[in-house]
Design goal:
Elements: H1 4-19, H2 31-44, H3 49-56, H4 63-70, H5 79-86, H6 88-100, H7 102-112, H8 116-127, E1 136-137, H9 138-147, H10 152-167, E2 177-178, H11 191-197, H12 213-226, H13 240-248, H14 252-265
Antiparallel strand pairs: 1-2
Helix pairs in contact: 5-14, 6-8, 7-12, 8-14, 9-10, 10-11, 11-12, 13-14
Length: 268
């Protein structure tokens, strides 16, 4: 017969296992039970029941998102291949964007220290200046990625951040559409970065990175400033500002293309 203390410990553990809801599982299992756990976590973080129900009430799992995630390959194009494909078709329009929004870019550079050419380069490479921001429902994409057991913690955090964006009144659930991996807006912010760096630059009381060009441009500059962008300094490979651009996208090829595109736009 086991000692009393051991038997009591086993009983406590057994009762705890019974009391623990299925929704406590960090990923996988029954999707409905898992989603209930997300709702509980969101409520515990102060997100309103109105937002929770509007965003998650009829949510379903999307296996096609997981298929896309698992099919990702390593970036294999060289800088010459990638930049040659991406920059020339966008250069003329990028120059027009610099001219069209010149007063905004001047104000942004004065406030954040980031030149318009750098912002336009990111804008053009990410979404063709807002033309291809993506049409995937962000909440469903993030929930599917969080439920999958490949990177559950990362995407569960992004899902909660997306709910916070809705809850603070910036976007409605139906407005949150973007890339399949949950990036939002014309320069493709993950929700956590949206919360941290999005600014209301058109003065309408909302931070809208999908429809408001001033908000998009200023928020992109604010992101780079937040990672240490140095005003008035170059941004080519080997510089401190190039390291900041790597915080936007960790691919050397992509970042070199951003830097090259911006240099072309700036006439360097």
């Amino acid at each position: 017969m086991r000692p009393l203390t051991i038997r009591l410990t086993c009983i406590v553990l057994w009762l705890g296992a019974i009391a623990a809801p299925a929704s406590a599982a960090p990923c996988g299992g029954d999707f409905g039970a898992w989603l209930q756990g997300v709702k509980q976590e969101a409520a515990a973080q102060g997100i309103s029941q109105r937002t929770i129900q509007s965003a998650l009430g009829t949510l379903s799992y999307d296996p096609s998102i997981i298929a896309r995630d698992h099919a990702q390959g390593v970036f294999r194009q060289s800088f010459e291949q990638f930049s040659g494909r991406m920059v020339p078709p966008r250069l003329a329009r990028g120059q027009r964007m610099l001219q069209q929004y010149a007063p905004i870019f001047s104000k942004i550079e004065q406030q954040f220290g980031v030149p318009g050419a750098v912002i336009v380069a990111i804008w053009g490479l990410e979404t063709d200046f807002g033309a291809n921001s993506g049409r995937f429902p962000t909440i469903r994409s993030l929930a599917s990625l969080a439920y999958d057991c490949r990177r559950p913690d990362k995407f569960r955090g992004e899902l909660i951040a997306a709910l916070q964006i809705i809850d603070r009144g910036d976007m409605a659930p139906s407005d949150l559409r973007g890339a399949w991996a949950g990036e939002i807006g014309q320069t493709q912010f993950l929700p956590s970065s949206y919360l941290k760096y999005a600014v209301d630059y058109d003065g309408n009381g909302r931070r809208d990175l999908i429809r408001s060009v001033p908000d998009v441009l200023a928020s992109t500059a604010n992101y780079l400033k937040g990672y240490g962008w140095q005003r008035g300094q170059p941004w080519g490979e080997g510089t401190a500002n190039f390291q900041v651009l790597l915080q936007w996208n960790s691919s050397q090829v992509y970042t070199k293309t951003v830097a090259y595109f911006a240099q072309q736009l700036a006439g360097q």
